[in-house]
Every structure is written in structure tokens, then in C-alpha cells.
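Protocol step 4 of 6: structure prediction from sequence.
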Amino acid sequence: MRRKRVYYTVTSEKIRKPLKLAVAADLHNAPYSDVTEDLAKCDAILVPGDLVDRHRKKYDRAACFLKEAPEAAPVFYSLGNHERRFAFREEWMRLVKESRVTLLDNESTEFEGIQLGGLSSAWEGKADTEFLDRFERENGFRLLMCHHPEMYRDYVSGRNVDFTVCGHAHGGQVQLFGQGLFAPGQGFFPKMTHGLYDDGKMLLSRGMTNGSRVPRINDPLELIILRLEPGKKQEVYKTER
């Protein structure tokens, strides 16, 4: 299935200069050569979890991503449920830490005047609220990677966090009349599958690959291109390019 490129723009008075970010969620050790040119045209690459697939022993393509993606642009990576439950987690995390990828495991860093944070997937769904307390006190535009939209709903919404990108829901797997059929963490007929939520403060990716044996119907794979622009107030909207 071909990956769509989906474009969004966020404006805020806290953003100092224009930035173009690729949001590559839920790659699950899949091939990615069709998006390498897109990644190279961005100022940074955000990976909000599930770069590996815990149901498979191999992580060869994900390992190549760790090596090749930073050649295109700086990469910032937060952990999803597949990293947390990966049978080869220790080996994988060693590769991550040896790579040029910036791991944000309940941590944040400054990049080009914005604060980038990563809220990691947690056992039993319990988020690191101490990290969130610290993150919302950071100066500047605060952009959070949070793999689970349900963790965003339960722990991030209402906090002093400017914008959040999520994955995990896989677009609801099957979309009928705008309603997704199933999403992990939400079950059947999920309320959050893709696009903007919480008055535009959270952007949910459909994901880069199909992580299920069930086919995706009316639910294209996608790479999100997110533009950050200086503006008088915070607004977010979908664009054609």
C-alpha cells in the first residue's frame, strides 16, 4: 500500500522561525525507501514510537533507519508499546543509544528554538507525570511526542503543552463513513483514529505501515509533513502541500 504525504501547518507566536518536520509514526520495521527524499527535505524527523515490531524477531530495517535517517535530518525518537514489549529490547536500545538518533525517553531537548519532548509508552498505561510537570514549565513552543492517543487524553490534555503528535491507532484499521473499526488501546469503534483532536492541540497519525494481519480499508498509510510557522496566535490547519 502506497504511503500518502499529509501536510499540516501550526502557527504560534512562540515559534521563532519556520521549520519543516516529518512525523514518521509506527514504521514497525517496514521498508521506507519511498519516503527518503521527503525526509531529506525536512529540518527534523520525529518518530513517536513503534519503530520496531514486537511480533517479529528481526529489526533489520529499523536498524537501517537508525543509521540512514540521521544522514537526511536530525532524528528525535520516543518509545511506543512495541519498544517496551520487544523481546530484544536490550539489544535494540543499545543500538539506539549508539546511533545518532536523539532518544527522548521521558525527556526533552531544545531544537531550533522549540522544546521537543517524548512521553514514553508505559507499563499499565501509567505516564511519567513528573516528566510532564517539568516539560510544561519549559520556555518556548512545547511539542510533545506521545505514542498513545489515549495517554494524551488521560495525561496531557489540559496541560501547558502547545502541540502533541501521536500514533498507535493505525487509523482505525477500517474506515467506514468516517468511523474507524478498531484501534489498539481503544477497542472497537474508537473515538480517535487520525487527524486533529482537542481543539487542534493533538495530531494523530494513521501510521507508516500496517501493523496488523487485517487489511486496511479506506485507511491509507501516511507520512505527515508538519510545518511550524511564526504567527500572532496558535492555529493549526491541513494544507495541500
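Step 5 (inspection) to follow. The chain has a mean pLDDT of 95.
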